[in-house]
Amino acid sequence: MGRSKPVSFAGKHFERQGDAVDYFNNQKVELLPEGTIENGELFESLKDVFERYCDNSPGYELNGRLITGFSVAYEKRHIEGVWATHPCFKVHFSNDEVRPFSIKKAIKSLADNQN
């Protein structure tokens, strides 16, 4: 069985990738700002993770676009016979494009590419 790789972003360090994913997925909907997240600790964490994910993932380059914000939508998913509410993150760009992205894939990419 492989050992979990630690991961760091935006000044935060997590011993396990799962803990880093939980940091984002456990954000309480009632504490999140309405609309787009454009500043603050959560914004800085999402921005760092997403930019580094783009740097490590061919086809995800920013190509001059700036990240202007993030949004979180919650959807119900049926996983292993149980319904659960799951956060879905989207990145907003300076050209008004909005794209979903996987926190789990981004965190794995960070852990795989950290020195």
Q: Would you kindly provide a brief summary of this structure?
A:
It is built from 3 helices and 5 strands. With 115 residues, it is of the alpha+beta class. The model has no long low-confidence stretch (mean pLDDT 86).
Question: In angstroms, what separates the terminal alpha carbons?
Answer: 21 Å
The side-by-side strand order for the widest beta sheet comes to 3-4-5
Main sheet overview: 3 strands, antiparallel
Uncertain residue ranges:
none
CATH C-level class is Alpha Beta
The whole-angstrom Rg is 14 Å
Q: Based on Cα principal axes, name the global outline.
A: globular
Based on the coordinates given, report the CATH architecture. Roll
* H/E element order: EEHHEEEH
Percentage of residues in DSSP E strands: 25-35%
CATH topology: Nuclear Transport Factor 2, Chain: A
Question: Helical proportion?
Answer: 25-40%
3D architecture notes:
The protein is α+β, with helices and mostly antiparallel strands and 115 residues long. The protein is 31% helix and 30% strand. The protein has 3 helices and 5 strands, in the order E-E-H-H-E-E-E-H. A 3-stranded antiparallel sheet has the order 3-4-5. It has a two-stranded antiparallel sheet with strand order 1-2. A hairpin with a 4-residue loop joins strand 4 and strand 5 (98-101). The model has no long low-confidence stretch (mean pLDDT 86).
Layout of SSEs?
Elements: E1 7-9, E2 12-14, H1 17-25, H2 41-56, E3 67-79, E4 82-93, E5 98-101, H3 103-113
Antiparallel strand pairs: 1-2, 3-4, 4-5
Helix pairs in contact: 1-3, 2-3
